[in-house]
Amino acid sequence: MLRRRDRLRYQNGTVVPPAAFVDQLLTHAAKATGRPSSTEVMAHARTLRRRALQATNKVGWELQRLRDSSPTPTGSAGRPGPA
To answer: Measured between alpha carbons, how far is 64 from 48 in angstroms, rounded to an integer?
Structure first.
């Protein structure tokens, strides 16, 4: 369960939200509007999140880069995952 304090920090830009929060937010918005988020929109949101991490949280950004380049359970490397 997301705490109100954390949600407010994400919304006001104090902290870059976790990838799962961003994905969940886009999924919720798609359901609310009745329009699914395109793969381009999801990819753009992930890119923006990575840029925000790079600017504000170097360690978090490096960890995300490592996650993105590590092999997936199926054995393929470099597949973009959650941002």
So the answer is: 13
Tokens of 8: 């407010």
Each residue's pLDDT tens digit, 26-70: 999 999 999 998 999 999 999 999 999 899 888 888 888 888 888
Hey, what are 70's tokens? 């590590």
Cα dihedral value 51, 67, 70, 48, nearest 10? -20
**What pLDDT score does 29 carry?**
93
| Structural domain boundaries, residue 21 | 4-69
| Residues recorded for the chain | 83
77 part of a folded domain: no
